[in-house]
Amino acid sequence: MNEIRNLLKQLEDGTTTVDEVLVKLKMEPFEDLDFAKPDFHRQIRQGTPEVIYGAGKTKEQIAAITKSLIDKGQKNVLITRMSEDAAEYLKNELSGRYRCDDDGCFSDNSLFYDKLSRICVVGGFQKPDGKGRIVVVTAGTSDLPVAKEAVYTAKYLGNDVIELFDVGVAGIHRLLENIETIFEARVIIAIAGMEGAIASVVGGLADCPVIAVPTSVGYGASFGGLSALLSMLNSCASGVSVVNIDNGFGAAYQASMINHL
Q1: CA distance 16 to 6
Q2: Phi-psi region of 155 (alpha: psi -120 to 50; beta: other; left: phi over 0)
Q3: Of residues 218 and 95, more confidently modeled
Q4: What distance in Å separates the CA atoms of residue 200 and residue 237, rounded to the nearest whole number?
């Protein structure tokens, strides 16, 4: 609805025309690619364009979906859980196909890929336009793949992000040294495996929403993140919500929605 409101505001201000608004609203809602149906109206409905989940898709499928979204006017595309091989293939597929202009179209070097988080961004990151800062906190270094997924997703969605990594309860003084950052955050994403205690600690300090992300980090009895998930769900700190195991993307998306309210 925000996108529709913006279109109407532009029409009221005279920065766009009735015909231009009609073109956007009349655009086909999706395209049938046989193996996928890219949703072109996602941004008009929700304010955020469709994101591609790369795991389980072939590099050819990812490239075809990306091209479809770009061809219908999507300025930048986020792809999660994408292999390095698929990223290289996509870069070659896009090379020379799009050129940069004043509207922010794609150039040959506009593909960003992070090996650790397996996040890919085509077309560049948005300028921060959120109300405050999202702080991403991890208990340990082993949680970084999930944390970086959250960081890059939040930045893609137009947020200013602060990273506090490896500040878990085994050395709680590391977190307390950054207490001002915790106090100043508008949303906090707390990421941990093992017993997942960092979410309750941060939740007991912060006056903003805390989104907890359990990770699959830990020894056998952590059951691939289930132990951390249950600990976070049973947190006695008020204001803590929980997403699924290793779901840095989901946490960042939620955090961005809160930060843009």
Answers
A1: 11
A2: alpha
A3: 218
A4: 5
